[in-house]
Amino acid sequence: MMAVNKAHLIMLREQHIISEQEACHIASAIQSLDVDGLRSSEYSFHVEDLFYQVEVELEKLGGPSVGNLHLARSRNDMGIAMYRMVLREKLNSTISSGLSLHRSLREFALRHIDTLMIAHTHTQQAQPTTLAHYICAVSDSLERDLNRLRSAYTGCNRSSLGAAALTTSGFPVCRDRTAELLGFDGIIENAYDAVSGADYAGEAASVAQLAAINLGRFVQDLLLWCTQEYGALIVAAPYVQVSSIMPQKRNPVSIEHARSLLSSAKGDAATALIMMHNTPFGDIVDTEDDMQPYVWRSLNTLESVYRLLSEVMDTLKVNVLLLRERAEHSFATVTELADTLVRTEGLSFRQAHSIVSRIVTQLTESGTSISGLNWDVVNTAVQEIAAKPLALTFEQLEQAISPEHFVHIRHVRGGPNPEEVARALEAQALRLGTQEQWSLDTTNRLRSVDAKLDLILNGWLNRI
C-alpha cells in the first residue's frame, strides 16, 4: 500500500495535478508514517479498513491537505494493484524454488545416466529404461509447470492504477508512469476490466493446481520405491522418522508430507477457483479479500514442497545393483526380441509379436524366468508360427534380451540411450538457465521498487 501511495503521489506531481509544495508536504507525511506500527495494529471500528486507517494517520501528520493523495484513484484500483503486487512476489518465489528442484532433478539424473531399471505401464513391468530417463521425464513436466507459472506472472504483473472506481478519472493521470514506478510490465487497459477481472488470480490458481497434481504423481512413485519390498530408494536420515515403538522403521515422512502438502495446495487452488465461479463481473469481495489468501496459500505450499523435494533428491540413495538385477531377470526386454526377429527373419512385427508372446506365456506358465528363453525355445516357436527355421544366432539372441542393449539401441530423440538422455538434460539446463536469469532479474527488479520510490521522494524533501 505504501508503495502504491508513493507511486501515485510521484505521478500526480509529474502530471502537474498537484503543486510541488503540496507534493513535498504529502511526501513528508508518507515518509514519517509509522509503517511498523500499522503492521502490528489491530482493527478499530473507528475506521472502516486499512485504507482509511492510513489516511487518518497521514492526516494526523500532515493535516487535511494530504487528502489530495486520493485524487483520481479508488480503493478498487488500489486494492487490485496491491493484490497483484503480492501475487507476483509469490509467483516469483515459487518459480525460484521450482528452478532449484529442477536443478536437483537434473543433477540426480546425471548421476544415474547408466542406472538400468524397469519402467512400468498400467502398474506392470513394461520395458527397460534408465533412472535418468525417468527423471528427465519428471523434469520436463516440471519445466512446463515453471513455464506456466511464468506465464501466470506475466498475466499478473499488470497495473490497475488509474482505473479508479472503474471509469478512470477526469484528471490527466498517467497510468503507464505508475505502472513503471511499481515494477509492472504494463497496464490493464480497460478500466472496467482493471477492477473487475479476476482471471490473473484464477490463472495462478489453475497453474498451482496442475503443478501440484503433476508433482504429486512423481511423489507417489517415490513413496512406492522407498518401500522395503521395492527397495530401490533410501531417503537420507534427516528426512526420515523412526517409529516410537518399532526400532527398525525408517519412515520417509519428508515424501509423505510432500504428498499431503501437494493435495493441500491443489485444494486451496480449487477453492479459489470455485469462489470465483458465478460471481458478478465487477469489483466485489468474492474475488478480493476472501479469495486471495487461498491462492497465496496454494503457492506458498507448492513453493515449500519444491524446496523440500530439492533437498530430498540431493541426498537420495539408489540401490543401483538391485534395479539392474531386476531388469536383467525380467521379460521387460522382449519387445527388442520381437524387433530383432523382424530384422533377422523377415517377419512382420505382428508375427514376431505373436511368437514372442507365445514364448513368454509358455515360460511364465511353467514358472520359468527369462533365463529359460534360449535359442531352441525361440526356434520352436518360429517354426510353429512362421513355418521356417530360425536364422537368429545365439549371440543375437543374447543381445536381444539384454536390458543394456535395449536401452543403448533406443537412441531416437527422447529415448533412454545414455547419450540421448545426456543431450536432453543439457538442453534442459540451457532452457532453464534462461529461466533462472529471468527469475533473478525479476527478483532484483521487484526488490528495487521501494528504493527507487524513496529516492524520488527523499530527493524532493532534500530540496526543501
Automatic annotation (TrEMBL):
Pathway: Amino-acid biosynthesis; L-arginine biosynthesis; L-arginine from L-ornithine and carbamoyl phosphate: step 3/3. The keyword Mitochondrion does not apply. Transmembrane segments: none annotated. Residues 331-407 form the Argininosuccinate lyase C-terminal domain. InterPro entries: Arg_succ_lyase_C (IPR029419), Argininosuccinate_lyase (IPR009049), Fumarase/histidase_N (IPR024083), Fumarate_lyase_fam (IPR000362), Fumarate_lyase_N (IPR022761), L-Aspartase-like (IPR008948). Residues 67-263 form the Fumarate lyase N-terminal domain. The gene is argH. It is an enzyme of class 4 (lyase). Its EC number is 4.3.2.1. One of its GO terms (molecular function) is argininosuccinate lyase activity. This is Argininosuccinate lyase. PANTHER family: ARGININOSUCCINATE LYASE. Keywords: Amino-acid biosynthesis, Arginine biosynthesis, Lyase.
